[in-house]
Amino acid sequence: MAVETHGVPQLELEAVIGFNGHVSSGLRVHPDKEHLIYPLGCTVILKRIKDGKQEFLHGHTNNVSCISVSKSGLYIASGQVNFMGFKATVIIWDYAQRTIYAQLLLHKAKVEALAFSPNDKYLVSLGGQDDGSIVIWNIETQQAICGSAASAHSAGHCLTVQYSNTNDNIFVSAGSGTLRVWELDLPNRKIRPTECQTGKLKRIVKCIEVSEDDQFVFCGTTSGDILKINMKTGLLSDCGPIKTKYSLGVNAIRILKSGDLLVGSGSGTFTLCSKNKFKTLKEVQLEKGVTSIAIRGEGQQFFVGTEAAQMYRFSHVDFKAELISTSHNSAVKDVAICFGISELFATCSEEDIRLWHIDKPKELLRITVPNMTCNSLDFMADGHSIISAWNDGKIRVFAPESGQLMLIIHNAHRMGVTAIAGTRNCKRIVSGGGEGQVRVWELQLRGHRLLETMKEHKATVACIKIKSDDKECVTASSDGACIIWDIVRFVSLQMVIANTLFRTVCYHPEEYQIITSGTDRKVVYWDVYDGSAIRELEGSQSGAINGLHISHDGKHFVTGGDDKLVKVWDYTEGVVTHIGIAHGGSITSVEICSNNRTLVSTSADGAILRWRFPHPSSS
After folding, report:
1. Which stretches are transmembrane (predicted)?
2. What's the topology of domain 503-618?
C-alpha cells in the first residue's frame, strides 16, 4: 500500500458518519472536556463537542478493539485486533501533536483492554483469549517492564483491567471466574497478583470501576449484578441489586463524585443507582445495549454509547437522553445521491435505509424493515421515491419525505433482489436477482406490472445501469459477463465476458463506452457497439473493486474496494489523480454528486465518509 499511495495527492476528508458501538468503553471524553474520543474501523476519531469538528488518528492496520485516555490527557492508547498468529499493536498517541508516540508489539491476535497509571508512568495492556497475558509498559522508555499470565489455569479468560486512582503500582484485572489485585515490584521486574475472594459467587466480570479513594472495586457481571470488593483485603463487601438484576448483564459502570453509580446494561437500560444497596434512583431505556459511559468534567454531563452505534448526551440534573449522533451498526451495502439536488443521499444496510443531509451529515429519516437486508437502492430521477432491493425477494418503494411504503412488489426474484435501477421517465424499474434473472417492471397508478424477464446470466446480478434515453441498460454479474439489453424489445444486444466476478459497471456519459470492475482488480473500458475491450487498468494492488462511479462530465471516475482506498482517476489518461486513505473496512460503494463537489464512500464497518471532490465542474 505504501508504494501505491506514494507521491499521489490525498483526498480531503470532510466528514465521517460512524462509531463502532461494540467496543467496550470505546467512547471517552478527554480530560480537556472539549473532545469525544471513539473508534471506527482502524481509525480513532477525536470530535470537538462544541461544533462537531473531527480529527483522525490513523496508524492501526485492523479494527480498533479498545481505547484508554491518560488522567492528565497527554496520551491516548488504543489496541487493535489482528489475524490469528500475528501480533496486535498497541499505539500510544501524543494528544497535543495528534501523532504516534509509541507502538508496542507483544500481544497475539487481539488487545482486549488498556489502562494508564494515575501519574502517566505506566500503561497496562491485556491480551485477548488467544494471548491471555498482562503486560506493564514504561511510557517514558516505551519498553515492556514485565508480563504475566492474566488468570490462573483453573479460571477462565480475563476480560478487563483498571488502574488504581492513587498508586502507580496497583491495578485490578477481572474476567470469567477471575478477579485479581496486582502489585508491581519494579526492582525485581515482577507483577504479583492477590486473588479476591467472592465466596460461593461465581461470576463473569465485564467491567471494573475503582472508587476515587481506592477503597473499593465495583465489578459489573454478565449475571446482571454488581460486586463491591474491598481493595485492601480482597474480600467481597457487598453484592446487588438483590431482587431485580440488570437484564442481559452489566456492560459499563462509572462512579460519580457523590459516590453514586451510573450503570449501563446489555438490554439498553441506563441507570443511576445508589452506592449502598444499589437502589435505582433514575432510569432511562435506550436502543440496544449500552457499551460505554463517559463522564465530562465533574459529572454534570455524561455521554453514552450503544451497540446500535448511537451516542447520547445526558445532564445530571434532568437525566434525559439527547441523541447526538447516529450511524449504521453493520456493513453499509449501497449509497445513492439524489439526482439534481445534491443535498440528500441515502444509504442502506441490514434492517434499514437511512436518509442523510450531505452538508451537516445528519440523519433525516430512517426506514426500518426488521430482520431483512437491503442490498441496493436508488432515487427515482424526479426525487419522489426511493426504490430498494431486499434479500426477501421483494422490491419496496418508499417516499423520501415521510418514509412511507408506497409500493411493494412481492416475489420479484427467487433468491433475493440484488440490484435495482429506475428509468429517467420514472415509469419503469429494472431489477436483478440472486438467480441471475433481469426483470423489467412498469409502475402504474395503482400498482405494477411485470413487462419481461430476461434470462441469460448464470449467477447473481451485481449492478444495473440504465442509458439516459431509457431504451437500453447494462447488467454486470458474478458469472463473468456484462450484458447490454434492449429494454424496448427485451433482447440482449451485446455481451462482454471476462475472467472475473463483476461487481460494478458504469456508462460513460457519452454512452459509447462502459467501464467495469470486479474481483480481478482491473478497471476495463469496453466499446458498447462491438463489445471489444478498449483499455485495461490495474485498479488496485490488493483486493476486489466493489464500487465505481463516473463524474457527470465524464472526465473522472472513482473506485473503491477491499484495499480500503478511495481512488480518483482521470478517464482519458487512465491515471490516479488522488487517493483517499481513511476507511477501516472494505469499501462497498462510492458515488460522486451531480455538481462534482462531493464524493461519498461507504464501507463494511458501517462508516460513511464524505470527501471533497478534487475536480470541481468548470461550468
Report:
1. none
2. Methylamine Dehydrogenase; Chain H (2.130.10)
